[in-house]
Amino acid sequence: MNHFKDFTPIRGCKQYIANNSELCVGNSSFWREVFGDIDIYNNRMHCPDQCDGGVVNETYLDSTAACEMRIGDVVIADLTELPSNIDVLYNTRSIEGRLIIANNTGLGNFDYFKNVEVIGSPLLEGDMAPLYVEGNNDLQSLELSKLKKVLLHENGLLIVLRENDLLDMSESEMDSLIAIAGGSDFVDIHCQEALLRNVRAAVLLLPLILMILMMLYSAMKLRGYQFSRALSVKSRKILADMSKEILAKNPLVWMIQDRPLIWRYGENDPERNTIKQLKTQHENYLKEYAIEVLPNARIPTTSDRCIADRLFQIIKHEEILAIATEDDISLVIPALPSDVGKGETYNGSRVNGSSITLKLVDVKSTNDQTQQYTYNVTIVQNAKTIVKRLKIYLYVWDSLRLPISFDELLEAITLSTKWRMTCVSDRRKEIFFLLHMIFTYVTVLEQSISVVKAFQFHTDHFNGAPMDRCEMLCVMAFILEWANQTNSIPIEIAEVC
């Protein structure tokens, strides 16, 4: 109140300062000089000596030797040695400002604020924490055993202790400061004990962390191919263009005019030049992204040699995507054990004395239409034994109807794309290869591709059975459903539909 110089009392209105048990009202002569006939009673009996804050040096300490309450920031900065009268700070009980201790040397075990109970004020503004200790390279300890409150006008960091290389605090001291600040969100404490605590916590949690990471990795391999509905603007534009191309004709018209889509052109056909150009255009896809599709011609179950030859093609890979029209893995890969714990051995012809033993060790369901089969494989060749693990994801695609199987089909396509899996199927490999190609162009390469030209390239390049009209319409239905679920179909087309 030192700034008050003039006061005009209102007639009949009594002035008084009374009944404030924590309020110190010093210098009563000043109050009566300014406010006239003012009553002062029932306030705090013992008032601590007050002084302004300031930069700590010998002069400041001499002038505030008896001070218990410092009003304003108390700054200890850039000292190379402590003032000879530093003991004066032991008298300090509260600092109604910031306590800033920064960039000093020679602090050692610093206990000169051990009697401080309050730092800061509800009126204190600004971003800097009320208790700020930073960059003191030989500060070994900081005693604040009586500290009860750290106050700031706005929410923010209340306590900062960092870049003090030698500062060591006990766990109880850190917990006390965190509690005073109101939680770990309001402190930034870096010291040896904090580091050790983090190291100890990391060591204790390491087995759990590793287990969680292994579970997450397994989940990613097992479920990580789930499709995200979000597509980039470019991908949605590609789907929109393909949708326009499909919807330009009625499905019945497409079935009648299927010649350019699912029939191979002869060598003398004028369209052969177009097909050859398509192969050049898709050379990067074939080299970097196209999945390998294994043959699946029916093999007599009585022929160990033929089965072994087929299995040698399978076991070269660590993961296989098998697509079946029924829930039976042996329809896709003949004679594979389908009961957990069962094994089969087959003698091959590639190398004299070679054999393959497959034992099914686990079966897991990844979704309604996909199961993961895990096999232990033992290969004997030239008196050498090789043991490896083989995972086969069996996706059951029993119907070409969409969108009934859309989600599961899209997951299977994403799985094969993510890990570039080799695929084998009893009937669906042709259509799956084409869907994988379209998916790759839309989401990975983000390159425009015509529906008709995609069919033409697939029909000419893919060495499998020709696709029929139902499969052709299924591919188109897949594209439209995908575009619909990702909001890629233009509004003008959606309104017509």
TrEMBL record:
Gene3D superfamilies listed in its UniProt record: Receptor L-domain (3.80.20.20)
Transmembrane segments annotated in the record for this chain: 201-219
Domain of life of the native organism: Eukaryota
Cited InterPro entries: Rcpt_L-dom (IPR000494), Rcpt_L-dom_sf (IPR036941)
Domain called Receptor L-domain: residue spans: 71-174
Keywords assigned by UniProt, alphabetized: Membrane, Receptor, Transmembrane, Transmembrane helix
Entry protein name: Receptor L domain protein
